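Homework help board

Subject: predicted structure for assignment chain

Our instructor gave us this sequence and asked us to write out the predicted structure in C-alpha cell form, then describe one feature. I got the C-alpha cells but I'm not sure how to describe them. Can anyone check?
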Amino acid sequence: RLVMLAIAFPVLALAAEAIGAENVRVLMMPSRYSSDHSVNDAVEQAKRMGVKYDIVTIEEGFKAFESMLAPIFGDLPLNVAEENIQARIRGTLLMGVSNKFGNLLLNTTNKSEAAVGYGTLYGDMNGSMSILGDVYKTQVYELAKLINKDKEIIPVNVLTKAPSAELRPDQKDTDSLPDYDVLDDILFRYIERQDDEQAIAAAGYSPEVVRKVVRLVNMNEYKRFQFAPVLRVSSKAFGFGRKMPLVFRF
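My C-alpha cell output:
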C-alpha cells in the first residue's frame, strides 16, 4: 500500500527513506492564503525525491462552505472558524484519497503543536500514525538539517522562513505562540521533567508566558485523546506515555 500524506517536508523524507519513494504519495492542497513558495518548495522536494504528487486547491470547497454558512455567520469577522474549515477540508480530501486507493495517512503534527493544541481536530490532526508527534518543533528543524547533511533534499527556504499555518493573511505561528525555542523549553520542563509553573519561571521565563503555555497544554488534552498514535522517541510521548483526565480541574 502507498503511504499518502499532506506535504510536510521531514515526514515526506522519512516516509520515503523507510518504505521507498515509489510507495509514497503526496497531496498538496493550497488555499487562497498559501504562498507561492510553499507550493513551489513542496513540488521541488517531491520532484527531488521522485515521489508521486497531486495538487488540489481547496478554494472551491472553501467558497462552498462560506456560502452555506453565510446565513448563520452573517457579517461576523473572520476568525478561527474559517481557519479550521480550511484544515477540515484538507482532512476530508486526505481521507477521501486514502479510502479510495487504500493508502495509509501519515499525520504531520509535531509535539509542540500537539502540546498546545495548535492543530485542528478532523483536519490536520487526521491520520493513522503520527510520525513527529513526539518531536518538538525545534527538533524538527534539527532533523531537517540532518536529512540535508549530504545533499539538499528539503528546500532550504523551508528552514529559513517564519513558520505559518497560512490560514489567514500574513499569519505567523508567533502571532499566538512564543518563539519555538522558548516554547519548547517550557514544554520540555513541564511535560518531560514535570516541573511546576514556579520552577519553570525560576529558570528565567516570564511567569505570564509560562502560565499561558501550561494552560494551553492542560486545556487541550481532549484533542490529544483523539489524536493519531504517536511514534515514541522520548520519555514522555503523548498517548500511553502521558495521559491526563479529561475532566480534571486545572
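Reply (TA_rk): Your C-alpha cells look well-formed. For the description, you could write something like this. The two ends are 43 Å apart (CA to CA). That's the kind of observation they're looking for.
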